[in-house]
Design a protein that fits this description.
By secondary structure, the chain is of the alpha/beta class. Helices cover about 50% and strands about 20% of the residues. The radius of gyration is 20 Å and the shape is globular. It starts with a strand and ends with a helix. It binds glycine (GLY).
Amino acid sequence: MKTIQAATYPVHFYDEAYQKLTDFVTSKNYSSIFLLVDDNTLDCCYPRFMQNFATNNSMEVIQIDAGEEFKNLETCVGVWNAMTELGADRKSLLITLGGGVITDLGGFVASTFKRGIDFINIPTTLLSMVDASVGGKTGIDLGVLKNQIGLFANPEMVIVDPEYLHTLSAREIRSGTAEIIKYGLTFDIKLFNEINNNKKLDIKDLIYESVKIKNNVVLEDPTEKNIRKVLNFGHTIGHAIESYFLDSSEKESLTHGEAIAIGMVCESYLSNVILNMPMEHVTFVKNAILEIYGKIDFTSDDYSSIMEYLKHDKKNVNGEVNFVLLNDYENFQLDCRATPNEIIDSLNYYLA
Ligand code: GLY
């Protein structure tokens, strides 16, 4: 599949991508290379990476604990210390090999270390292939508040190799599917229909189309002043629910995609209330999402906490919660407002 060109870097696909990576690294004459992995990707992805990547440079592996709860400043300090002890300098390269936590945190670590060193993203989850690794957002969580600290910084290259998807559970694949549904509802309904109609998905095509959509949006609005906000469809309520579940000792953590899927049902409902999105389309979205993810277990007792998390959404302006809503499929409106009662109604709609 053809390379997709982002603003300052290429996104290469499949086996030939490793040759591009090898050629690039050789041409740049880096002083040293660091590979950031977590427990899972060290076991499951590192062997494939090493089979495909050849370098004469010295390469050190830095391993962090796997999981969203480690996407924090303490982990960054650990990585910065390790790089310092291992002699990293401004001509070093950091390669991130992992899911969204690794690519977001690794990009943040690299772009702040000695005021910024090069990094390359090799996403290994569906979620990071279609979203996190592309677009230049880097960052970490602040407590349970997602991605509160970070900066825009572009990698030198992204390598998308779907072979890594074989290392994932069905639940993790479903998590990434939520972002593809988002691209479908906002830009290309074919993607959503394909997920609904096909039990056996052509995942390579879906990834490629998703990256193309995301890249076009980011090219138009790299720092989310305008159209890039559309990529937050489902994420306003979704992030609040994800943070609430992460923080609650009684709830099992949700995957990002499970939370965003709930958010897309609620925000489709709000789209009907505020923008008149046809109700049959809202129902269709809800049924499709429940079919894939099941009904996630929460009740009206949880609403007040979820509403509290909504107050911290990064898109809020002057304390008002900001939504991307749909007039209909492939037709969105940015900067929409909903009242607290409307938001509660949307949660009721999900649970009904
Ligand atoms: N994940 C949303 C964005 O990259 O803007």
